[in-house]
Amino acid sequence: MFVAIPIPSEVRDAVTALVDGVRGAGDPAVRDVRWVRLDGLHLTIRFLGPTDEDNVADVAAAVDRTAGRVAPFDVVIAGGGAFPSVARPRALWLGVAEGATDLAATATALDDASRTSAGPATIARIAHI
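The chain above was modelled as a monomer; its predicted structure follows.
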């Protein structure tokens, strides 16, 4: 599970045009590129990993509390690169030129809101007794 901010449609359209250009300019010998679906393009605020179904409501409540406390802010997507390097890319990414501090503050606020609703630590599941 992860918490993310969706990208507005006009930004998604610009990213789609950029990706289409990169795809068209790509080396035809490179075959193992799996492009992500751009209809769900987002900025991840916090990756939570596998989340117990019993905790999903608490996570949603923490997200709602955070959204109610964080003032709106602008994010500018610009630049990009490759991990681990451009010479041997394993992933392509787009950068955040403005708004990174606000995104980080939102992640911290989410962490704080999550701590106020900590649930029990599950130590075992029993299928049959």
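Helices lie at 9-25, 56-69, 100-115.
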